[in-house]
Specification:
- The chain is built from three helices and 17 strands.
- It has 265 residues and is mainly beta.
- It folds into two domains: 46 residues; 191 residues, Immunoglobulin-like.
- Helix 1 packs parallel to helix 2.
């Protein structure tokens, strides 16, 4: 009896402390272990979506994708850098001209997001470095980070591919990863067009893709002879047929321009 009373008092104390600290509370959590409840709420508060270090939004927040559309989650340069102790996490991208951009970094399994506050970036290889405390806490690997750098004020959606790294950059760029997310089961058809020649340099299809799954397209930026495609603007053209769609006569399509460079510097 006394033991149950003690747990009840501790449970009430836990709820009172959470309310006093202004933390988000889920009433569905049982009070059989009030200490665990307190630490869980403090942990959630520390990792929540908010401005950090006066230079970025970062934290855990939900992402909702519904309906008959394909969302582009990421265009990244395929590269794995080896981490040394105390290395900061970096993202890099190249702009051919000074531009306003919207940068988004995310990881699906944990709903981790990061968005730098800076929008105006110069015409060069740009770098943004940030503290990896939250990423380390959730054991998020560099390869599982998704990202886009959207060039604003363009008539066609234009992307600068992101590279994630710790300290070293590759000598040459020859592979890209395109990550999409569909709200419905879908057949996906895609191609990459070189803008300067209007030639298709890559195409493919993924059929019967399951609902709410990432769809990854990998492009090696070399021709059949192993010659690298030239620097410049390319287009990723996507068409999709959704299964059991509400408007069966309409075909979904989208286009993203992106910059390709064989070297970052």
């Amino acid at each position: 009896m006394n033991g149950n009373l003690k747990v009840c008092r501790l449970g009430l104390f836990a709820v009172a402390l959470i309310i006093l600290l202004g933390l988000e509370t889920e009433i569905t959590i049982l009070l059989s272990n009030p200490g665990e409840l307190i630490f869980r709420q403090i942990e959630n508060n520390q990792n929540k979506w908010k401005i950090r270090d006066n230079n970025r939004w970062e934290g855990i927040r939900n992402r909702q994708i519904v309906g008959e559309r394909i969302d582009l989650l990421s265009i990244t340069i395929d590269y794995i850098d080896i981490r040394r102790s105390n290395d900061s996490l970096n993202l890099g991208f190249v702009l051919p001209e000074s531009s306003n951009v919207d940068i988004t970094v995310q990881e699906n399994a944990t709903n981790y997001w990061m968005k730098p506050l800076q929008q105006k970036w110069p015409a060069k290889f740009n770098n943004f470095s940030w503290n990896s405390k939250i990423i380390d806490y959730f054991n998020i690997e560099l390869y599982h980070l998704y990202g886009t750098v959207v060039i604003l004020e363009k008539s066609v959606k234009t992307i600068a591919p992101i590279i994630f790294y710790y300290r070293h950059l590759p000598n040459k760029i020859d592979k890209y990863r395109f990550i999409f997310f569909s709200g419905k089961k879908v057949d996906l058809y895609f191609k990459i067009i070189q803008r300067s020649t209007n030639a298709t340099v890559f195409d493919g299809q993924f059929l019967d893709q399951p609902i709410k799954q990432e769809i990854e397209v990998t492009w090696v930026s070399r021709d059949q002879n192993g010659t690298s495609y030239p620097d410049g603007m390319y287009e990723f053209v996507l068409k999709a047929n959704f299964k059991f769609r509400t408007k069966p006569d309409e075909e979904y399509s989208d286009v993203w321009q992106f910059y390709h460079y064989n070297k970052l510097n």
